[in-house]
Design a protein that fits this description.
Blueprint (H helix, E strand, L loop, with lengths): L2 E5 L5 H10 L5 E5 L11 H17 L4 E4 L2 H6 L1 H7 L6 E3 L2 H8 L11 E2 L4 E6 L1 H6 L1 H7 L2 E2 L2 E6 L3 H6 L3 H18 L5 E4 L8 H8 L4 E3 L2 H13 L10 E5 L3 H12 L6 E2 L1
Helix pairs in contact: 1-11, 9-10
Length: about 270
């Protein structure tokens, strides 16, 4: 039985690589909604409708568990989906919670009341839609008190990365970090709140400075999924992977190959 991984584009491939390395015996189906990317500038209702359609496509492909490896979808659609749409025999998980659990030093599934944590000043870098949703702050408030979060909407970064223009992406990252630091000069932690951003992790780190701890999601999501699958061993398979896109497979495959610097081949969804 395969695990579905969904992203609006190619950013979720950073999650796929990490979970494949951590769980080599699990089958995965990756779906990129490239025809409708990017999600970060869309309305909440648009994001919800597109995410539901993509998740249903993965359910139809035999996935009982789907990971929204898209922060925008996790922020704008996940809670609504879980409350009113996800079938009782299926699970849909997001990427924010494992990251927040790591930052607040909680074990997986620790639902104790919010408490004081060591990190007090957090810089969140995310898409405009993710920032507008305030989903990160909401999930953090369930687990920690006394944490100041300054969010920076990083418009244009995803488009530059998807287009393979890493010089433009780097310039945009530096500009967004400068803007954040004008609002919060001395953050203790930086959250890369988009699965594209790990590709620019070194640039974020250099711009923020060596004293800022950066959190990105790939390895954290992989560990969280490993914990989940230990309690649901029926999900284990043979390590197969299928890569699907709603866009042009040839174009998306070329971009994905540039993105991960190894041959990647997508098929039409």
């Amino acid at each position: 039985m395969a695990v579905g991984i969904f992203d609006s584009g190619l950013g979720g491939l950073t999650i796929l690589e990490a979970v494949q390395a951590r769980l080599p015996d699990v089958d995965f189906v990756y779906l990129a909604d490239s025809a409708n990317a990017p999600y970060g500038v869309r309305t909440a209702d648009d994001i919800y409708d597109l995410t539901v359609a993509a998740t249903q496509r993965l359910f139809d492909a035999g996935c009982d568990l789907v990971i929204l490896a898209c922060n925008t979808a996790s922020a704008a659609a996940l809670r609504r989906m879980q409350e009113s749409w996800v079938p009782t025999d299926k699970r849909v998980l997001g990427v924010f919670v494992p990251l927040i659990e790591a930052m607040t030093e909680r074990e997986w599934g620790d639902n104790s009341p919010p408490r004081e944590v060591a990190v007090k000043h957090v810089a969140l870098f995310a898409t405009p839609a993710t920032v507008a949703s305030r989903a990160f702050q909401r999930e953090l408030a369930f687990r920690a008190i006394g944490v100041d979060v300054e969010a920076q909407a990083c418009g244009g970064v995803v488009d530059a990365i998807e287009d393979g223009d890493m010089i433009l992406a780097e310039a945009m990252v530096r500009s967004h970090v400068d803007a954040l630091k004008r609002k919060m000069p001395h953050p203790q932690a930086g959250i890369l709140g988009c699965t594209h951003y790990p590709l620019m992790k070194d640039v974020f780190q250099e711009a923020l400075g060596p004293d800022v701890t950066l959190y990105s999601q790939a390895d954290l999501v992989a560990e969280s999924l490993a914990d989940y699958l230990e309690r649901h061993p029926k999900m284990m398979g043979a390590g197969a992977a299928a890569l699907l896109t709603t866009g042009d497979p040839a174009r998306v495959s070329t971009r994905a190959t540039q993105f991960l610097r190894r041959q990647i081949t997508f098929s039409a969804a």
